[in-house]
Amino acid sequence: MNMVSSSTPATNMNSLMSSEDNIQRTQYPYVTGTSVVGIKYKDGILLAGDMGASYGSTLRNKTVDRIQPIGKHSLIGASGDISDFQEILRKLNEVILYDNMWDDGNSLGPKEVHNYLTRLIYNRRNKFDPLWNSIVLGGVKNGQKYLGMVSMIGVHFEDNHVATGFGNHLARPILRDEWHENLTFEEGVKLLEKCMRVLLYRDRSAVNKIRVCFLFISNVLNDLLSAFFLHILYSSISLDLRFYGVNAAS
Amino acid sequence: MTKQQANWSPYDNNGGTCVAIAGADYCVIAADTRMSTGYNILTRDYSKITQLAEKSLMASSGFQADVRALQKLLAARHSIYQHQHNKQMSCPGMAQLLSNTLYYKRFFPYYSFNVLGGLDSEGKGCVFTYDAVGSYERVGYGSQGSGSTLIMPFLDNQLKSPSPLLLPAKDAVTPLSEAEAIDLVKTCFASATERDIYTGDKLEIVILNAQGTRREYLDLRKD
Predict the structure, then answer these.
(1) Chain B residues near residue A153 by CB distance under 8 angstroms
(2) Contact call for residues A175 and A191 (beta carbons, < 8 A)
(3) What pLDDT band is residue B3 in, cutting at 50, 70 and 90?
(4) Segment B75-113, tens digit of pLDDT
(5) CA closest to B2 among chain A residues
(6) Taking residues A121-133, what's their average pLDDT?
(7) Phi/psi class of residue A241: alpha, beta or left (left: φ > 0; alpha: ψ in -120 to 50)?
(8) Contact B118/B94 with Cβ under 8 angstroms?
(9) Per-residue pLDDT tens over the stretch B8-50
(10) What is the distance, to the nearest Å, from the Cα of residue B135 to the centroid of all Cα atoms in its chain?
(11) Distance of alpha carbon B55 from alpha carbon A154, whole angstroms
């Protein structure tokens, strides 16, 4: 990681906050991912993001999974620093593991994961050592859909559709126009594909390899039970988005 | 590698406007539900009003992450208070606690602009306005946040509060009826929304009186 010593003039604030002079902090992101878009649809939530990771303006990696499952009920998608995202994943999975070890039949849902994530990120900004990510979190638990966001300084909220980075400028206007509560899965994927295409056209660091992940409530598979039975599926599909004559096979 | 990102800031301004009006036996607390960052709207439906105790409500604008941390801290402090005293904290008590909590972070402040509204121990409406570092004052009406520069002079014109220097001290509560106060709040926000880009989407009004709390909503401009 590229670290800058806290004694440089640009980081005077850091030296005010601690007596030790050798503490190193991430001052800017290194390898970064671009926008993630998430929506609720009729039976669950959908998250989409491309698989590129940029090193400045260089495309360094084309097959990074920036959307990952957390526990049984949640998906998180991150834009921003990839290494910070991996640290977040490590911490979240540790929390999930320690919770599982109680073996009490409880499991952490999206609401809990979102709250933990928010506190973690806000705590790091308080230490002037931020986790350089904007994170989208979606989940389904007890028949309830959940979709939220956290920024790198801890601003967080829930909504029916969310997006990070460029997605805020380019995808959300489309979502505000076309999103509705009764979107089917196919319509949802189509809508995300449209968003990702616009992002691909105008966001220079976006790549034409998109991953769409989803979680859904299923009462179809268990319709013998009158109770709302929960069934979680995690899956992904790659959308083949073609852009002009450029080879889209990569 | 050349630096391509601006040095980060631990603060952001997520905008929003808060208004509170105290009457003889009620208190009206209102805020819009828009949350923005820069020229972006993050969400159109984020409530800025929280109930801190049975008879005190806080409306907060500014930096949402700090606001949320402040709300959580006050909620925790209030549950400790309830365990120790087996009663709800009074609104003036909560006002002092909020001031101390803000000042505790004087040198790395909560970037939050609050109005606290509620009923005092006599059942009279009370409003407290704050700055980000905890200086506060009991008033008859108050406004904070991005649209406060548009709303405050209008409220001054409509409600003329007595000087706090007058002797003997005069009551700061407004002479309006509850319904008149609600109407005034609606007018304020409808006007502020016209000119302040950080105010809009929806207005949430909470009315607190002897019967309890009641909520009203009004759609505002979405542009």
Answers:
(1) 8-12, 65
(2) yes
(3) low
(4) 999 999 999 999 999 999 999 999 999 999 999 999 999
(5) A56
(6) 96
(7) beta
(8) yes
(9) 899 999 999 999 999 999 999 999 999 999 999 999 999 999 9
(10) 14
(11) 29
Read off the tokens for A32.
Answer: 């970064």
State how far residue A161 is from chain B, nearest Cα, in angstroms: 9
Find the residue in B nearest to A163 (Cα).
B42
Count CA within 13 A, CB hemisphere, residue B85. 11
Compute the distance between CA of residue A38 and CA of residue A17 in angstroms, rounded to an integer: 37
The pLDDT tens digits of the residues spanning B94-103 come to 999 999 999 9
Tokens of A142: 């007890």
The pTM score is 0.87
Tell me the two tokens of residue B79. Answer: 């549950």
Which of B3, B42, B65 is nearest residue A28 as measured by Cβ atoms?
A: B3
Chain B environment of A27 (Cβ under 8 Å): 7-8
Find the angle CA(A142)-CA(A143)-CA(A145) to the nearest 5 degrees.
Answer: 105
B190–chain A Cβ distance below 8 A for any pair? no
pLDDT higher than 80, residue A245: no
A168–B42 C-beta distance less than 8 A: yes
Over range B142-150, report the average pLDDT: 97
